[in-house]
Amino acid sequence: MADKKIKNVFRQGAISSEFIGNSIAKHQTKTSIGAHNIFLGQVRADVIENKTVSAIEYTAYEDMANAKFHDIREAAFEKFELTCMHIYHSLGTVNAGEICLFVFVSSPRRKVVFKALEFIVEAIKADVPVFGKEIFEDESHQWKVNS
Amino acid sequence: MADKKIKNVFRQGAISSEFIGNSIAKHQTKTSIGAHNIFLGQVRADVIENKTVSAIEYTAYEDMANAKFHDIREAAFEKFELTCMHIYHSLGTVNAGEICLFVFVSSPRRKVVFKALEFIVEAIKADVPVFGKEIFEDESHQWKVNS
Amino acid sequence: MLITIKYFGQIAEVTQKEEESLEFSGALVSELIEQLYEKYTLLKNKDFKVAQNQELATLETLISGNDIALLPPFAGG
Amino acid sequence: MLITIKYFGQIAEVTQKEEESLEFSGALVSELIEQLYEKYTLLKNKDFKVAQNQELATLETLISGNDIALLPPFAGG
């Protein structure tokens, strides 16, 4: 693992729809691709005991998280015939309705992209040390836990 | 079925990345959504007997196709807890590298979007009367068949 | 009975038209296909399904005369 | 042995710091946890995992002293 270049998956703040649109546009020169599958995680304005979540503040054990993202990436390329794969995760404040996770897989054929995308998203939820503080409208907070 | 409003799923020509980005942006006011899943079909520059596909020209039995898209939509809402669903398919010429199918599902929680998206895409491939003429660079053609 | 048939994709390439009306004296889809094979010999080499009222029909379906279409293999997406 | 521990999320709320160095005379992760429970009583109510060298450790893992971190439940995505 130490030999391979580990990318930084994190972006400060929300991931914009323009950024996602541009990522899609960049793949139009890759004419061996027949199918893309994109997962977007969006911050929900959950209501918990009459208080509404207005944002999530993300922190991470960044070195370990990037190493885990790298492992997930390698495992997915090993397991599935993918042309390319991109993962972006927010750090800092992401408001309700904004996007905090963007996973993008592409392959010549469709069947593989469904399996690959679910594998990657489930692995991110289970294995990557990212922490989320749900901020309520009254500025109190609670800690998010993945289910 | 006759009582329900049947949408027109078809768009003339390729589906642009800007259109997809805008669709994503429009969902940021829907703060009950936690997960989006997007499938994009892209035209491949397949090489068949030394000739390269430069575009696909799509035609459809439009009335029946829109009725089938409608049925698929209803079945997906019945089967899965979805907040919203959008389907767009190209008619006419779509060049290699361009997008011809855009399926977008959203739900409060992630597990359901993976299953729903695959269900919808497989149903589109199997049940909707859309026809594709693969145009080679020398202007000869062959007819595409879904596998 | 006078029926109208729509042709699509590579089937329309064989028939060289997208729609036509013709006189049909049989009852079943299978009989209609036989009649079309006689008119368009090349159709025998083609894979297609018959739709009636925008639903796929089988060889045993009764022809009602409405919205009949010959559909080559689907290629959506 | 002097070890450095990183704290994250709600664990850092309990310890009121994100990192500290402390003297550890035991051998196993379980012993380190006991020592931290003594220092931070509220930690006992918290769910966390211990990572060493950026890999999750178990109670029986030997402490080598490198890159130790207390990780609350993951919430990525």
Automatic annotation (TrEMBL), chains A, B:
Its EC number is 2.8.1.12. SUPFAM superfamilies: Molybdopterin synthase subunit MoaE. It holds the Pfam family MoaE. It comes from the Bacteria. Pathway: Cofactor biosynthesis; molybdopterin biosynthesis. It is an enzyme of class 2 (transferase). Keywords: Molybdenum cofactor biosynthesis. Signal peptide: none annotated. It catalyses: 2 [molybdopterin-synthase sulfur-carrier protein]-C-terminal-Gly-aminoethanethioate + cyclic pyranopterin phosphate + H2O = molybdopterin + 2 [molybdopterin-synthase sulfur-carrier protein]-C-terminal Gly-Gly + 2 H(+). InterPro entries: MoaE_sf, Mopterin_biosynth_MoaE. Belongs to the MoaE family. Heterotetramer of 2 MoaD subunits and 2 MoaE subunits. Also stable as homodimer. The enzyme changes between these two forms during catalysis. This is Molybdopterin synthase catalytic subunit. It comes from Flavivirga amylovorans.
TrEMBL record, chains C, D:
InterPro entries: Beta-grasp_dom_sf (IPR012675), Mopterin_synth/thiamin_S_b (IPR016155), ThiS/MoaD-like (IPR003749). This is MoaD/ThiS family protein. Signal peptide: none annotated. It comes from Flavivirga amylovorans. It holds the Pfam family ThiS.
